[in-house]
Amino acid sequence: MDSDIVLETRDLTKHYGGVHALEGANFILRQGEHVAIMGDNGAGKSTFVRQITGVERPTRGEIIFYGEKVQFDGPLDAREAGIETVFQTLALADDLDVPDNLFLGREKTLFNLGPFSILDYRGMREATKAGLEKTGVKIPNIHNTIRNMSGGQRQCVAIARTATFHSRLTIMDEPTAALGVQETAQVENIIRALKEAGEPLILISHNMRQVFDLVDRIVVFRRGRICANLVKEETDGQDVVAYITGAKTQDEYAEAF
Amino acid sequence: MTDGSHGVGGVTFDASRRRWPNEVNIFAALILIILIFEALGALLMNQSFLFDSRGRFDTIFNEQRLRIIILQVSIIGIIALGVTQVIILGGIDLSSGSVVGATAMITMSFAQVATVNGHPNPKAVFGPELMDLPAIVPVIVGLACGLFAGLVNGLLIAYTRIPPFIATLGMLVSARGVAKWWTKGQPVSFPTEGYAWIGSGMMPVIWFVLLAVLFHLILRYTVYGKHTYAIGSNEEAARMSGIAVDRHKVLVYAIAAMLAAFAAIVLSSKNLTAQSGMGVVYELYAIAMAVIGGVSLAGGRGSIVGTVLGALIFGVIQSGFTFLRLDAFYQEMVMGAIIVGAVVLDQWRQKRAALRS
Ligand SMILES: Nc1ncnc2c1ncn2[C@@H]1O[C@H](COP(=O)(O)OP(=O)(O)OP(=O)(O)O)[C@@H](O)[C@H]1O
Ligand SMILES: [Mg+2]
Q1: Would the pLDDT of B197 be above 70?
Q2: Chain A partners of B215 at a C-beta cutoff of 8 Å?
Q3: Which of these, A174, A219, A224, B169, could form a disulfide with A44 (CB 3.0-4.6 Å)?
Q4: What domain range includes position B197?
């Protein structure tokens, strides 16, 4: 078996009652590779992400992470295994401030007293500042609650959260959806930095330019199934749109449609 | 925490223009209410509400009234400390009053003396082998009652996804049933000296203050507190961030019910008796204290400091009405209006916050 495979899913499937949100996804991500997932609204992209990050239990199928078959019991499990995710819903607690959110679920503590462990506020504040500095994310006041922030600032916080921690796989679900021109460029720079560092990435995006700018390969989802796996150099925008809309389907995926 | 240098990336941030914490507003409200009673007192009664009006120089305040105010709110205040955590978590606990009743009855049964004035205890629940026990026994029994009720609440809410309102409403009815069934409605009296000490004199106030400080620190400086706020602000986000949401909920409901149980211990000790009707509607008063103190029913916002201020406002109003010799009926009517007012204010605040973002 290939040793440079970061993530592989076999027949990954998720049904919500009668809704077949994800059906038989076979997906491979290799070391250092940046892959985009594209597809129309409701195609199953976020569902795919929720299965591999332990947020939900797949109906069936296997997930292999760095050669090991994994079954994450929850999002924390996936994080501890090294998967950092920017969820489409951002997963921020509105009433908490930036350091609190960056460390949500994995707080730095001074003394370990189980649930009553004392928080290391200073450590988290310093790490937050360093993390924001590193990613170039601009937040006027990190002690502002998320509730009082603009949509773009919230997104920056969510992205800074993944970028602050060392990870073995980064997943971003539409990270620039609410961002202005400058902030989008900033996030794209973060992604390029990951590429240079050789860290693998799954990027979900509807932005064709961005995808062609940043990734090596494009996987297209349609109605819960993968319908194309395209190397960037061998395709173009029109071609991808044809796969997204269902005008075309790659031969190896054709029998399902 | 207040140095102004947290601007990152060159965006200016003016530290002097931070909005002050909501607790300042509530404190202002407390002062305002006191001033209103002072004014009414001067106008209608020709005496001062909280200040010493007998012209002595050794005292500034009317200590007796102050003492009554804080003593009055202390026991329900202890319950409110737990209710605060449950509401911040995004839940609600309607069972605390009934938990007080059931716990008081059961606890008192383990705190009885064998002989009263040379006669056998006329209210004895158990045989002599379970009498004259050291006070620690009934205290542990009481806390265990609270723990049990809280675990039932928490497990129902976290794992069967029954809405907190329904689950704790069920407990409200059931626990009251236990309180009545325990001695078939008979009061339980004559506690040991050790047990009677727990709620004697100003002890309820001391317990309230100690527990308020403890839980203020816990909510502020521990992972438990952070997760409570996180779940209340956005349960889904908390889950996705890897917080063990269900387990945490069970813990919070357990702690809240144990605080109610402790209030029952203090109350029964103070009264030297337990009755099956003890604690009726305390849950609503406790919720009122929290809400008046700025704890948002939507979850995620509020503090122990706020609730303590809310409890004081509650006590001042109660005592103010007595001071003005107004009927208890009016008192309840006005209290109801204040609770509704506090909730309306909170919703208005939320809407304004939502509009801003
Ligand atoms: N919890 C759920 N229960 C029932 N159906 C769901 C659930 N979550 C998602 N779905 C359905 O699954 C399908 C795939 O949704 P998903 O969120 O994965 O789409 P997506 O590709 O991420 O779309 P978008 O581009 O809009 O983010 C949709 O039809 C959606 O309605
Ligand atoms: Mg999506």
Answers
A1: yes
A2: none
A3: A224
A4: 61-356
Cα(A37)–Cα(A26) distance, integer angstroms: 13
Q: How far is A113 from chain B (nearest CA, A)?
A: 9
Torsion sign across C-alpha atoms A249, A250, A251, A253: negative
CB contact under 8 A, B230 and A104: yes
Mean pLDDT of A139-159: 87
Return mean pLDDT, chain B.
89
Residue B210 has pLDDT above 60, yes or no: yes
Instruction: Find tokens 């029109």 and name the residue.
Output: A238
pLDDT in tens, B239-260: 999 899 999 999 999 999 999 9
Nearest chain B CA: its distance from A137 CA (Å)? 7
Give chain B positions within 8 Å (CB) of A151.
357
Domains of chain A listed by start with CATH number: 5-91+169-256 (3.40.50.300)
Q: Within chain B, what is the greatest distance between any pair of CA atoms?
A: 81
The Cα–Cα gap between A246 and A40 comes to 10
For B313-318, what is the mean pLDDT? 91
Q: Which residue, chain included where needed, has tokens 């007595």?
A: B322
- Report the separation in Å between the CA atom of A174 and the middle of ligand 2, taken as the mean of its atom positions: 7
Distance A8 CA to ligand 2 centre (A): 20
The token pair at B341 is 């007012």
**What is the rounded end-to-end Cα distance, in angstroms, of chain B?**
24
Task: Please tell me which of the candidates B1, B230, B240 has its beta carbon nearest to residue A96.
Answer: B230
Q: Which among A19, A37, A48 is the best mutation to test ligand 1's pocket, defined by most ligand atoms within 8 Å of the CB?
A: A19
CA distances from A193 to A35, A135, A172, B51 (A): 15, 9, 14, 68
Report which protein residue has its CA nearest ligand 1's atom 10.
A21
**Pocket around ligand 1 at a 6 A CB cut-off:** A 16, 19, 21, 39, 41-47, 88
A187 pLDDT exceeds 90?
no
Q: Which residue has the tokens 């955590």?
A: B85
* Structural domains in chain B (count): 1
Please tell me the distance from the alpha carbon of residue B206 to that of residue A183, in angstroms, as a whole number: 54
Among residues of chain A, what percentage have pLDDT more than 90? 68
Length of chain A measured in residues: 257
| Contact call for residues B229 and B88 (beta carbons, < 8 A) | yes
**Range in A240-254, B143-157, B197-211, B269-283 the model is least confident about:** A240-254
Q: For A4-37, what is each residue's pLDDT tens digit?
A: 999 999 999 999 999 999 999 999 999 999 999 9
Is A107 in contact with B226 (Cβ distance < 8 A)? yes
CB B163 within 8 A of CB B153: no
CA distance B287 to chain A (A): 21
The residue among B303, B354, B288 whose CA lies nearest residue B21 is: B303
pLDDT at position B10 is 46
Q: Please say if the pLDDT value at position B36 is more than 90.
A: yes
Chain B residues whose CB is inside 8 A of the A100 CB are 226, 230
